[in-house]
Amino acid sequence: MSSEYFPTRTRIERRGKTMNKTVLMIIGTRADAIKMAPVIEVIRADSDLVPLVVATSQHREMLDQVLDAFDLSVDIDLDIMRHRQTLTDVTVRAFEGLEDVFAKHKVDLTIVQGDTTTSFVGGLVSFYHGKAVAHVEAGLRTYDLSRPFPEEANRRMLDALSTLLFPPTERAKEQLLMENLPEKAMLVTGNTAIDSLLRVAKMDRPISDPEIRAIAEDGSRRLVIVTAHRRESFGAPFQRLIGALKRIAVAHPEVDLVYPVHLNPNVDVPVREALSGVSGVHLVPPMDYLDFTKLMAACDFVLTDSGGIQEEAPALGKPVVVLREVTERPEGIEAGVARLVGTDEDAIVAAADELLVDKEAYRRMSRKAFLYGDGKASERIHAVVRKKLGLDADEPEPFVPWIEEF
What we know:
Rossmann fold, 2 domains, six-stranded parallel sheet, about 400 residues, about 15% strand, globular, alpha/beta
């Protein structure tokens, strides 16, 4: 809905205390929507708070899938996505759209998540307007500005200007402290992605696509999910990944590799040119969040360069082969439920071979691991936001990770 049709909310004075504080929550991508959905839900349920949900729609189709899955409405849709947009295009249009939001609506606090361009711009515009910024998923670091690009830069700058910092893990908090950010601004919450994951995993709804559902339900075959779309992998690294997938499919005819292909032409074109028609490889459009979660629950393991899936798959007991040179989520690697292989073709093939052939290796990596959240992150965030806005709230306990024993 256009901002011009969204009425400005005013605060109500009640017994000398300012009530009905306006909380701006900004989303732009699929990941933003997944991780912000439980936060939006708890803020909307609070009668002392006025939620204002703004979507930049940096990724139009993939964002809409998640909004539909969670039955999540937005108050203002800036609709900034354009064909073949650059990072500069996204940044400028998001900045102009959000500047207009602040011109027309009173905001007391802004919540953004993660490391997307939308989140960084949202935090910066809020900072320029002197408003408190709460950063969900703060403190993740690779210490390499090119990996992931531009996310590493986005999250570092966003942390620096945020008023409230919600690191998902103790390691993320330690990294914030090393950058001399104030500990009093921090609470280890776990990641809101696990809140969403656990909610969806309980839903009694089959995969909507009958072909994919049949693959997921075929107990006679192995199932491997592939997701790869990172900008730093475009070009030669992607060709190595494609080569690895071909080799895995040929060596393991008992395996179905399901690859929801990102819409970016730098991904879609080379993947479809090389892998279309390869036996056992199923190239499918981006899946809605509910379907993908059900598919992940049914799979044997995941090959991915996604940050979120590195958190979600271990919570479902699914091993993760990480197709990146470095990761800001080392907890899974250290716990032995994820393996970092980069984009080296031989390393990818070797990791997949081991998980498909070595039962003991598979057993070690397939323990359920709640390293990144316990389903209560949004509740902790809500409590801290209330306190920041001068409202009553219990002091939340920080998240503590746990993992199944052998």
